[in-house]
């Protein structure tokens, strides 16, 4: 890679003009966001307008009852959606699914088909556009070409994608004015095993719904028929110039910089967070928001994040499976739109050393079919027994199966971020805030709740749930029952829990599956305890409910932590409490197969033993492969770029020293620098050679040994190479350095 390429990329970055997209207009005014929203979604309203009324009613009953669609209904829906989609420019359809790669997959098929008929004894072939109910319901990708963890052999290729009718179909715009109809789907093997992320998410949603409804029945609620898990994923990401990105092989291959010195100024002054969004970035995000609005993704918030060139967008909460669909669509749209703006979006959890990485904070709650949020504590949580029973069930789940949640967010990329003073640590704990902690403590200790109306903030008096700022022009300010704790991996934030440890690059599906499973089991246990306390009475008494809350609050108390999760003191305290501190990914993956976790998932019917074992192997294999790809990429950077730059600069220094010596000048500064460069080059070359040998060693090991050895040895060796390369970067003249530097990428 030449220095001229780097300079050309920098010049292109400076001189490039913004891409401008006009917001659509109607009647000489800008369309309102609500008018744009869902334009390309085949939602219930659209279905009602395009299907015969009896067919639409049959479809609604079948979906609401979670029964298999009959063929006549499927044929009618397929015909209606084809006409609707083709009128909007669609030429193809695709079953859009979520294999265990962290991304989505799609295979496009045309609506075009050929028919034949006999005319005057001759067969005539003619073209028509068609889409049958069978084509809508099912397609057949190659099941052996996706991660399967041994469920499928290479020669066992058959797999099926099946339409998920709960998630609406939508249209994605393509080149040349064409479009594709996207059909959200599940992906299963020939024998019915789940090969994807969505199948198990839908299973877990049904399990937790049933468990929650069971608790509500025990509390006298006979109206609620279904409870959904709601989810909102705050998506963090970096945006960098694409020309510079193209000159960084590590970013292109590994998704993160494997070498590079942080600039003198990055995020120390805390001046980027919530600052003014750069115009080029705003143009990109605004265009992405427009496309997302058309396909029904309810993006609500956008802002600068903590690190330079880091940003976040966040949606309105939706039912979990749809929220996952929409999060993955958001990542895809951001990627494609950024490309048009000559930008590159980075979803890696830690693309740059020394500055904050990115997460995907998953905001999770439970909602009844009447829209009632079961995690709303109301203004008097101490007497909201339904809320408290759900709360202690969640805490019980955290305490008993926190290791499952740790496993759900483990990856080679997220490992760089967890616990690094920017993300929750590997110890799973729950934060409730002072008020709710006091409520549970008072119930456990059988005493009145403390008086929260007493002033305890300097300059601010607290009365109930409002703040008085002592400024006459300001109205009373509503105050939440809890503060926010950004160091907690699982924090209660007012009417939901925020699972903060989820990685920005990963699908949120698997973490939510395991969370749903753990909570569902604990809800069952709480329900059993309520019924036992009730005995033969017609309904449980207040004391019955308090006794159950008291029992579960006490047994799960060790998982509650209100302090700084980044502190060394918490590590010591967590060990005393018996909370696992699972630092490595291979150790986290093994937790999936422990008896208590295996029993949980299989007994609830969310994962079979074979499906669970396959996921363990997929995760472990991907972890080792990710690290090996990074290591090979790093070695290539050093051998093909850094060392040649060092050698070229050494030669120039040597030539300069010889020239000065001929002129009778003692080149002391040059000699000193040459000596430093020589020592640094030798050290880097030796480290690179050791890295190459270690790569060969790990590649020869079996799957399990690969993951463990890569985690223990390869990461250390790569860091050693990086330190020596970064030391050389500080010494080599800028004009010789082959790769765009952090200053250019981030600032």
From TrEMBL:
Residues 91-192 form the GS beta-grasp domain. PROSITE patterns: GS_BETA_GRASP, GS_CATALYTIC. Residues 197-642 form the GS catalytic domain. GO terms for biological process: glutamine biosynthetic process. Gene3D superfamilies: 1.20.120.1560, Glutamine synthetase/guanido kinase, catalytic domain. It comes from the Eukaryota. Keywords: Coiled coil. Residues 684-731 form a coiled coil. One of its GO terms (molecular function) is glutamine synthetase activity. InterPro entries: Gln-synt_C (IPR040577), Gln_synt_N (IPR008147), Gln_synth/guanido_kin_cat_dom (IPR014746), Gln_synth_cat_dom (IPR008146), GS_Type-3 (IPR052725), GSIII_N (IPR022147). PANTHER family: GLUTAMINE SYNTHETASE, TYPE-3 GLUTAMINE SYNTHETASE. Belongs to the glutamine synthetase family. This is Glutamine synthetase. It comes from Chytriomyces confervae.
């Amino acid at each position: 890679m030449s220095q001229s390429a780097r300079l050309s990329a920098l010049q292109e970055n400076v001189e490039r003009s913004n891409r401008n997209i006009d917001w659509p207009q109607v009647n000489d005014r800008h369309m309102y966001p609500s008018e744009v929203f869902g334009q390309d979604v085949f939602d219930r309203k659209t279905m009602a307008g395009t299907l015969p009324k009896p067919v639409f009613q049959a479809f609604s009953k079948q979906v609401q009852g979670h029964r298999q669609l009959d063929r006549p209904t499927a044929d009618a829906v397929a015909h209606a959606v084809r006409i609707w989609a083709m009128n909007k420019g669609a030429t193809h359809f695709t079953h859009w699914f979520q294999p265990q790669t962290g991304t989505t997959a799609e295979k496009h098929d045309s609506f075009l088909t050929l028919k034949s008929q006999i005319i005057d004894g001759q067969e005539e072939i003619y073209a028509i556009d068609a889409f049958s109910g069978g084509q809508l319901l099912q397609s057949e990708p190659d099941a052996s070409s996706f991660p399967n963890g041994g469920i499928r052999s290479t020669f066992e290729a058959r797999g099926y994608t099946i339409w998920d009718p709960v998630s609406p179909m939508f249209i994605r715009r393509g080149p040349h004015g064409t479009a594709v109809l996207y059909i959200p789907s599940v992906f299963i093997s020939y024998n019915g095993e789940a090969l994807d992320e969505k199948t198990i998410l839908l299973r877990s949603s049904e399990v937790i719904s049933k468990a929650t409804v069971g608790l509500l029945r025990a509390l006298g609620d006979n109206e609620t028929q279904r409870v959904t898990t709601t989810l909102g994923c705050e998506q963090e990401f970096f945006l960098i110039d694409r020309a510079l990105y193209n000159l960084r092989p590590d970013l292109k291959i590994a998704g993160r910089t494997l070498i590079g010195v942080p600039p003198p100024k990055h995020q120390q002054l805390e001046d980027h967070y919530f600052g003014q969004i750069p115009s080029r970035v705003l143009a990109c995000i605004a265009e992405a928001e427009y496309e997302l609005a058309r396909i029904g993704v309810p993006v609500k918030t956008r802002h600068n994040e903590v690190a330079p060139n880091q940003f976040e967008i966040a949606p309105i909460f939706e039912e979990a499976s749809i929220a996952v669909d929409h999060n993955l669509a958001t990542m895809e749209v951001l990627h494609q739109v950024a490309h048009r703006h000559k930008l590159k979006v980075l979803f890696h959890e830690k693309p740059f050393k020394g500055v904050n990485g990115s997460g995907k904070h998953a905001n999770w709650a439970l909602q009844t079919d009447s829209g009632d949020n079961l995690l709303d504590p109301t203004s008097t949580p101490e007497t909201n027994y339904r809320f408290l029973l759900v709360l202690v069930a969640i805490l019980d789940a955290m305490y008993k199966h926190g290791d499952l949640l740790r496993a759900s967010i483990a990856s080679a990329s997220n490992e760089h971020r967890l616990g690094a003073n920017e993300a929750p640590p590997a110890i799973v704990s729950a934060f409730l805030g002072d008020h709710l902690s006091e409520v549970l403590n008072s119930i456990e200790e059988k005493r009145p709740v403390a008086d929260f109306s007493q002033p305890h903030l300097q300059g601010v008096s607290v009365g109930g749930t409002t703040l008085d700022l002592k400024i006459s022009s300001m109205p009373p300010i509503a105050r939440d029952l809890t503060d926010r704790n950004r160091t907690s991996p699982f924090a209660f934030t007012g009417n939901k829990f925020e699972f903060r440890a989820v990685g920005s690059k990963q699908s949120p599906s698997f973490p939510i599956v395991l969370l749903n499973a753990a909570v569902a089991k604990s809800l069952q246990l709480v329900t059993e305890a309520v019924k036992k306390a009730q005995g033969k009475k017609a309904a449980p008494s207040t004391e019955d409910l308090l006794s159950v809350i008291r029992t579960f609050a006490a047994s799960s108390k060790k998982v509650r932590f209100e302090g700084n999760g980044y502190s060394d003191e918490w590590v010591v305290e967590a060990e005393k409490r018996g909370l696992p501190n699972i630092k490595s990914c291979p150790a986290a993956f093994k937790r999936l197969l422990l008896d208590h976790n295996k029993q949980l998932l299989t007994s609830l019917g969310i994962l079979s033993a074979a499906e669970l074992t396959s996921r363990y192997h997929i995760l472990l294999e991907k972890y080792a492969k990710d690290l090996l790809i990074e290591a090979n990429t790093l070695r290539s950077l050093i051998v093909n770029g850094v060392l040649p730059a060092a050698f070229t600069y050494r030669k120039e220094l040597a030539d300069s020293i010889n020239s000065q010596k001929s002129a009778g000048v003692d080149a002391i500064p040059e000699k000193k620098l040459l000596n430093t460069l020589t020592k640094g080059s030798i050290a880097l070359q030796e480290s690179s050679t050791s890295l190459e040998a270690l790569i060969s060693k790990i590649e020869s090991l079996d799957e399990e040994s690969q993951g463990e050895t890569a985690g223990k040895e390869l990461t250390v060796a790569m860091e050693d190479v990086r330190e020596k390369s970064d030391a050389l970067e500080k010494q080599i003249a800028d004009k010789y350095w082959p790769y765009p530097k952090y200053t250019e990428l981030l600032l």
